[in-house]
TrEMBL record:
Lineage of origin: Bacteria, Pseudomonadati, Pseudomonadota, Alphaproteobacteria, Sphingomonadales
Family: Belongs to the TonB-dependent receptor family.
Record localization: Cell outer membrane
Species, as recorded: Sphingomonas gilva
Keywords: Cell outer membrane, Membrane, Signal, Transmembrane, Transmembrane beta strand, Transport
All copies of domain TonB-dependent receptor plug, residue ranges: 64-177
This protein's GO CC annotations: cell outer membrane
PANTHER family, sorted: PTHR47234, TONB-DEPENDENT RECEPTOR (PTHR47234:SF2)
SUPFAM superfamilies: Porins
Protein name in the entry: TonB-dependent receptor plug domain-containing protein
Residues of the signal peptide: 1-24
Membrane topology: Multi-pass membrane protein
Length: 882
C-alpha cells in the first residue's frame, strides 16, 4: 500500500543504565533520581544543553531514549489560565490527576497531584515529579508532590516522560516523570492577573502573580523571585445543582434474587431516592411502632414509606436526601519563591533557592446522621419522649425504641485545612574540561498540615445527652449519667422534632477533631557527565553518580479520634518514622546512527543510497535542460490529445496530489455553530459520502482513515504513484474517484451546487429531515407563519398567527412527526432547501435563491446544442468517420 505521508526523521540510540541502591529503615525502598539531560533544538538552529527528563546523560541534538513531551507554560496557561496543574489535567494522559476539586473530605489534603494514566494514588505514587531536574519534598507522607507549590510564573516549560522511566529514575517513575523546568535566565519584570466565575455564579477564581529577575556584578550574579496568590471560592453543596436535586443514584433492588431472574437486577438506577431509616425530627425505625415520625413541638405523624424500600433507601416517601459535599473545594494559596546563582569562575556556578507556600481551605462536610446501627436507643422514661408514644410503649410492653435522626437543624460540620510548605536547595555545576561536568545539590523541605473539623458530633456525649430523664431530687430534666456522676457536664438533648435541641446541648455533643502532620525530606546528589570517547555515529555519553535521600513523617491527633469516637472525620495518628535510600547510578548512551530527513525520503522513494561523494559535473547545462524539457513537454502535450482516457487520469491525479500550477482544496464545511456542525456530521448525505470516500481511498491504496482524498502537497513522487495507480483502474472505478474528488472540491453555497442538484434532480426529502438545529435557527416570525401554512394549512396558520414562535415551531414539528393528534406530513422540505429553491417572502436575502438565479441565467445563454461535440482537427474527424 502506498502511503500518503512522508516519514520524517528516523533515529536510533541505545541507553544502558545501572542503579545500585541500599535502603535503610522502615517501609519503602523507592528509587528515583532527578537528573539533567538535553535535547537538540531545530535542525537549523545551534543545539544547546537543556534539561530533559528522559535520560541522565547530556548530548546535544540527541533525542531521549524515552518518549518526552515538552509543553511550554505559555501554551498551557493560554488554554487554562488558572494554574499549570489545572492546565495539565486537561491533557488525556493526566485525566487521573487529583486537583482540589477531587477532595471533598476534611481528612483529605487540598492539593494538586499529577498522575500519568491513572496509575498512582495518594498512598502509592508512581509518577515522579521533579523541579528543574531535582527531587522535591512531598506534601504528604504518601510521597505525592503538590505541584501547586511550584512557582508558576518562573516555570519555563514542563517535560513529560509518558513512558515508564523506572529504569532511569526508580520505582516511583513506573508511570513516568513530570519535570517542571525553571526559567534560569529570566531577567525583567513579569506580572499576571486574571479572574473568572462559572456560569452559575460560583467557583470564582482570582489569580495575581509578580516575578522579577536581574543580573549584577558583570552578569555573574543572577537573582530572581516570584510572589503568587490564588483564590478559588469553589462550588458549594452539590444539592445546589439541578442535576442532583433529582436525587438519582443506583440503589439495591429489594426483589433481587440470585436464584430467580424474575426479581430483576441486583441494582437499579432511580431518581427520587431518599433515606429509609432517618428523618429530620426523628423516626422510629423498628418494632411495632416503626414508621412513627416526630414533628416540631413533640407531635407525631405516620412516616410515609416510598417504593423499592430497603433497610437504607427507597424511592419517594417522607425520607430525606442529605446534601452532599462540595463539588469543588475552596482553596486559597500564597506562594513565594527565590533563586540566586553566582558564577564564581567561568567554570563554576553556585546556586541557592527557597520556596514557601501556604494553602488554606474550609470545606463543608456532613450533617449529623444517626441511622441503622448508630440510631438512638430511647427508653420509655425519656423525659422528652411525647406522652402519646410513651403510652403506646407501655401498652405494648416496650422498654426501648430505636430512633433514626438527621440533624439538619443542628448545623453542618466544616473542615479547616492549613498547609505550610518550606523548601530550600543549594548546589553547584563545575566544568571539568572538555564536555565533562560535575554537579551536585542538597535539597531540604518540610510540609506541615493542620486540620480540624468544627461541629463534629462526639458519639459518646450524644448518647449520654439523648438519654434524658427527670431528676427525682429536683424534678428537673437531666442526663441519666448525671444522676450517678454529677460532675460529668452532660447537658440533656431533646432529639424529638426539628428545633427541639437547646444550644447548650448542641455545644455539649459537638467537638473538634484535629490532626497535625509533618513530612520532611532531605536529598543530595553528586553526579558527573561527559563523553569518554566517540564512535563513527557520534560521542558516547556517560552519566554516573551517587544519590542519597531521607524521608520522615509523623502525625498526631486528638484522643477521641484515635479511639474512633467522632461520628465521622476521625483522624489517624502516626508515630514518627523515617527511611533513607543510598544509591549509585550509571548510564551510557551509544548512538547506533541516524537517518536524516533527506535519507528518509530517499528510502521511501527507493532511490540509490547516498555515498557521500561529491556529485559529478552535470553533462548538460541548465539552459540545455530547459530546452529538452520544453520540447518533450510540447510533444507529450500534443500526443495526449489523442488519448483522452490517459489525460483524464492525469487530471484526477493532479486534483488529488496537486501541481505547481494549481491545487484542489477540499471544502472545509466549517461553521462556528455547534448545532449546525452536529446536524451536518450526522446527516445521511455526509455518512454516505464518507462511506464512498473510504472505498475510493482503498482503490488508491491510501488509508481509509484519511480525512480527504484531495489536498496533496504537490509532491512529484506521489503524483506519479497516483497516476500509475489510476492507469490500472477501469473506467468505472476512475469515475468513482472523480465523483469523490469533485464532491470534496464542491464549494458549499455556490452556483455549482445549484447546477448539479437541479441537473441530477436531487430530492432533498430523501437526504434531510427537520431536526432540532433547524428549528433552533428559524427566528423570523413571518417566515414561521408561512411554514405553518405550508405544513398545516392556511386555516391553522391564521388561527395561530398571534402565538409565540415556540408554539409555531411545535405545530410544524407535530405535523412532521404525526404527534399530538396532528396529521403527519411526509417528505416536507423547506423551500430554501429544495431544487430549485424559493423564498417565503419578497424580502430576499436567501443565498440559495441567488445561486439558482445565476444557474438560470447561464442556462438561458448556453451554447447551441447542435454545435460539434468534439475539438478534433478536420483530418482527424474524417479519419474517425471512415
Amino acid at each position: 500500500m502506498m502511503g500518503n505521508r512522508l516519514c520524517r526523521a528516523l533515529g536510533a540510540s541505545t541507553a544502558i543504565g545501572m542503579v545500585c541502591a541500599a535502603t535503610a529503615a522502615s517501609a519503602q525502598s523507592a528509587v528515583e533520581y532527578p537528573q539533567d539531560a538535553s535535547v537538540g533544538q531545530d535542525e537549523q538552529a545551534q543545539a544547546e544543553d537543556i534539561i530533559v527528563t528522559g535520560s541522565r546523560v547530556v548530548t546535544n541534538g540527541n533525542q531521549s531514549a524515552n518518549p518526552v513531551t515538552v509543553l511550554s507554560t505559555d501554551e498551557l496557561l493560554r488554554n487554562t489560565p488558572t494554574t499549570i496543574a489545572d492546565a495539565l489535567s486537561q491533557a488525556p494522559q493526566f485525566r487521573g490527576s487529583l486537583r482540589p476539586s477531587s477532595f471533598v473530605s476534611p481528612q483529605s489534603p487540598v492539593n494538586a497531584f499529577v498522575n500519568l494514566r491513572g496509575l498512582s494514588d495518594p498512598g502509592t505514587p508512581r509518577t515522579l515529579v521533579l523541579f528543574d531536574g531535582r527531587r522535591v519534598t512531598p506534601a504528604i507522607a504518601g510521597g505525592q508532590v503538590d505541584v501547586n507549590m511550584l512557582p508558576n510564573l518562573l516555570v519555563k516549560r514542563v517535560d513529560i516522560v509518558t513512558g515508564g522511566a523506572s529504569a532511569a529514575y526508580g520505582s516511583d517513575a513506573v508511570a513516568g516523570v513530570v519535570n517542571y523546568i525553571l526559567d534560569r535566565d529570566f531577567v525583567g519584570l513579569k506580572a499576571s492577573a486574571n479572574a473568572g466565575v462559572s456560569q452559575r455564579g460560583d467557583n470564582g477564581t482570582q489569580k495575581i502573580g509578580l516575578a522579577a529577575g536581574g543580573k549584577f556584578l558583570d552578569d555573574r550574579l543572577h537573582v530572581m523571585g516570584s510572589l503568587e496568590y490564588f483564590n478559588s471560592s469553589g462550588v458549594g453543596n452539590t444539592s445546589d445543582r439541578a442535576w442532583l436535586q433529582k436525587h438519582c443514584q443506583a440503589i439495591q433492588n429489594p426483589t433481587y434474587s440470585a436464584t430467580n431472574s424474575a426479581g430483576g437486577p441486583n441494582f437499579l438506577f432511580r431518581c427520587g431516592v431518599t433515606g429509609t431509616d432517618f428523618a429530620r425530627g426523628g423516626v422510629i425505625t423498628s418494632g411495632p411502632l416503626q414508621g412513627t415520625q416526630f414533628l416540631p413541638g413533640g407531635a407525631t405523624a405516620p412516616y410515609r414509606y416510598g417504593t423499592l424500600r430497603t433497610a437504607s433507601t427507597m424511592v419517594g416517601g417522607d425520607g430525606e436526601w442529605l446534601p452532599r459535599g462540595n463539588v469543588v473545594a475552596p482553596l486559597k494559596t500564597i506562594s513565594g519563591f527565590g533563586h540566586i546563582d553566582y558564577d564564581v569562575t567561568d567554570n563554576i556556578r553556585l546556586f541557592v533557592e527557597g520556596t514557601y507556600t501556604r494553602n488554606e481551605s474550609d470545606l463543608p462536610f456532613i450533617y449529623p446522621q444517626f441511622s441503622g446501627g448508630s440510631a438512638f436507643a430511647i427508653r420509655a422514661d425519656n423525659a422528652f419522649l411525647p406522652n402519646s408514644v410513651r403510652g403506646q410503649m407501655a401498652t405494648l410492653g416496650l422498654a426501648t425504641i430505636s430512633v433514626g435522626r438527621v440533624g439538619l437543624d443542628w448545623g453542618q460540620s466544616v473542615g479547616h485545612t492549613t498547609q505550610d510548605y518550606y523548601r530550600g536547595a543549594a548546589g553547584f555545576d563545575a566544568k571539568l574540561g572538555g564536555d565533562w561536568v560535575l554537579s551536585g545539590y542538597f535539597d531540604w523541605g518540610r510540609a506541615l498540615i493542620d486540620q480540624n473539623t468544627t461541629q463534629m458530633v462526639n458519639v459518646a456525649n450524644a448518647r449520654l445527652a439523648a438519654d434524658a430523664v427527670v431528676n427525682p431530687a429536683n424534678g428537673q430534666i437531666a442526663c441519666r449519667s448525671t444522676l450517678t456522676n454529677p460532675a460529668n457536664g452532660c447537658v440533656p438533648l431533646n432529639i424529638f422534632g426539628e428545633g427541639s435541641a437547646s444550644q447548650a446541648a448542641l455545644d455539649y455533643i459537638f467537638g473538634e477533631p484535629f490532626t497535625h502532620r509533618k513530612t520532611e525530606q532531605s536529598a543530595a546528589e553528586l553526579a558527573v557527565r561527559g563523553s569518554p570517547f566517540a564512535t563513527w555515529a557520534g560521542d558516547v555519553q556517560l552519566a554516573a553518580g551517587f544519590d542519597w535521600r531521607e524521608i520522615s513523617a509523623s502525625a498526631v491527633a486528638d484522643s477521641i479520634s484515635t479511639s474512633g469516637g467522632w461520628l465521622a472525620g476521625n483522624q489517624v495518628a502516626q508515630p514518627y518514622g523515617k527511611y533513607n535510600v543510598k544509591e549509585v547510578f550509571g548510564e551510557v548512551t551509544i548512538h547506533e546512527g541516524y537517518v536524516t530527513r533527506k535519507e528518509a525520503r530517499r528510502i521511501e522513494k527507493g532511490e540509490a543510497p547516498d555515498t557521500g561523494q561529491k556529485p559529478a559535473r552535470p553533462e548538460v547545462t541548465a539552459t540545455m535542460q530547459t530546452y529538452i524539457d520544453l520540447h518533450r513537454h510540447a510533444a507529450v502535450r500534443a500526443a495526449l490529445t489523442g488519448h483522452p482516457k490517459v489525460a483524464l487520469r492525469l487530471l484526477v491525479a493532479h486534483a488529488i496530489v496537486g501541481s505547481h500550477l494549481f491545487r484542489v482544496t477540499p471544502e472545509p464545511q466549517s461553521t462556528r455553530n455547534d448545532g449546525v456542525r452536529e446536524s451536518v456530521e450526522t446527516c445521511r448525505g455526509e455518512a454516505e459520502f464518507d462511506e464512498r470516500r473510504r472505498a475510493v481511498l482503498g482503490l488508491l491504496g491510501f488509508s481509509a482513515e484519511e480525512a480527504t482524498v484531495t489536498g496533496g502537497n504537490c509532491d512529484g513522487y506521489r503524483l506519479a504513484g497516483v497516476f500509475l495507480r489510476l492507469l490500472d483502474l477501469p473506467d468505472r472505478a476512475v469515475m468513482d474517484v472523480i465523483a469523490i474528488v469533485i464532491g470534496e472540491a464542491l464549494a458549499a453555497g455556490g452556483a455549482a451546487v445549484e447546477a448539479v442538484g437541479s441537473h441530477i434532480g436531487v430530492d432533498m426529502a430523501q437526504w434531510w429531515q427537520a431536526d432540532a438545529a433547524f428549528f433552533e435557527l428559524i427566528r423570523d416570525k413571518e417566515v414561521l407563519g408561512r411554514i405553518v401554512a405550508e405544513v398545516a394549512g392556511e386555516a391553522v396558520a391564521s388561527a395561530n398567527a398571534g402565538e409565540k414562535s415556540k408554539t409555531l415551531k411545535e405545530i410544524v414539528a407535530d405535523h412532521l412527526a404525526g404527534a399530538n393528534g396532528r396529521a403527519k406530513v411526509e417528505n416536507w422540505v423547506p423551500k430554501w432547501m429544495a431544487f430549485p429553491p424559493a423564498g417565503y417572502t419578497a424580502r430576499g436575502g436567501v443565498g440559495t435563491v441567488k445561486a439558482a438565479a445565476l444557474v438560470a441565467a447561464a442556462r438561458a445563454t448556453e451554447p447551441d446544442p447542435t454545435a460539434p461535440a468534439s475539438a478534433l482537427l478536420p483530418e482527424e474527424a474524417e479519419k474517425l468517420a471512415a
